[in-house]
Amino acid sequence: MARVGLVEDHESVAIGLAAMLGPEADLDLVATADSVAGLLAHPEASNGLDLVVLDLRLPDGSTPGDNVTALRERGIEVLVFTGADNAFLVRSAAKAGVLGVLRKSEGVATVVDAVRKAASGEQVVTTDWAAAIDGDPQLSAVGLSPRQEEVLMLYASGEKASRVARLTGLSEQTVNDYLGRIRQKYADAGRPAPTKTDLYKRAVEDGWLPVPERNHRG
Fold first, then answer.
1. How sure is the predictor about 214, in pLDDT bands with cuts at 50, 70 and 90?
2. Does domain 2-133 have CATH number 3.40.50.1220?
3. N or C: at which end does the chain have fewer Cβ atoms within 10 angstroms?
4. How far is it, in rounded angstroms, from Cα 151 to Cα 157?
5. What is the DSSP code (8-state) at residue 102?
6. For 134-148, what is each residue's pLDDT tens digit?
7. Following CA atoms 21, 23, 28, 32 in sequence, which dihedral angle do they give, to the nearest 10 degrees?
8. Are the beta carbons of 203 and 209 closer than 8 angstroms?
9. Taking the domains of the chain in order of start, what are their residue ranges?
10. CA 98 – CA 33 distance, rounded (Å)
11. Which has the higher per-residue pLDDT, 185 or 208?
């Protein structure tokens, strides 16, 4: 029997998935939490999990990429279960190594089949997952270096260039040079970011900063 965990902060979704998997003799939903850290701390997690069904947007502000990486480092396969339309969040998860991306609006049979396949290590190919790993220019990564990502996250979150320089140990001129290169890379990718607000939007889209609003959840 496959041991399945769920990371989801909507109780109704957790209850729904438990009801879907309950009748399945080969699938056992053994642990549910509202964060990856919470799930990994769950007593059942110590007995091993074959699969984690993962929501994209969580209240702890974690990114899909970091969450998937944390689970994969434990040898746990991941299936994204989302209602989100943000293709960049989907791409972030896909790049980190999920087996598939499944919408919460899918029917019971589709959800159960996807969980069963993912729990056995099979890829679950859907339109959302395929789009996330395609070469679609609108979904393409901008190719920032780790240092540029760090500068972007700090600056886009509200820090001034001088403060970013102090936090990173770079000169203010170097920070400004990095910001110029970052803007150029976004422009080259067809996603211009001429203002600080635009850079904030791009950082959220690409999963480097948490999604601020909680009305339309994934």
1. very low
2. no
3. N
4. 10
5. E
6. 544 444 567 888 899
7. 40
8. yes
9. 2-133, 141-205
10. 19
11. 185
Q: How would you class 214 by CB atoms within 10 Å of its CB: exposed for 0-12, middle for 13-18, buried for 19 or more?
A: exposed
Q: Please check whether residue 2 is in contact with residue 51, taking contact to mean a CB–CB distance below 8 angstroms.
A: yes
Structurally, at CATH architecture level, domain 141-205 sits in Orthogonal Bundle (1.10)
Q: Which amino acid is at 139?
A: L
Do the beta carbons of residue 207 and residue 63 sit within 8 Å? yes
Average pLDDT over residues 127-137: 55
What CA–CA distance (Å, rounded) separates 26 from 18?
A: 13
User: What's the chain's length in residues?
Assistant: 218
Cα–Cα distance between 168 and 151 in angstroms, integer?
8
- For residue 119, the one-letter residue type is A
Quick one: tokens of 217? 């959840």
Nearest-10 crossing angle of helices 108-119, 11-21: 80
- Using alpha carbons, select from 33, 66, 55, 54 the residue that is nearest to residue 207: 66
Q: If you search the block for the tokens 């499944």, which residue do you land on?
A: 102
The residue assigned the tokens 């959840």 is 217
| Tens-place pLDDT, residues 86-117 | 666 777 777 778 888 888 989 999 999 999 99
Phi, then psi, of 52 in degrees rounded to 5: -120, 130
Would you state the structure tokens that stand for residue 86, as one six-digit string? Answer: 């943000």
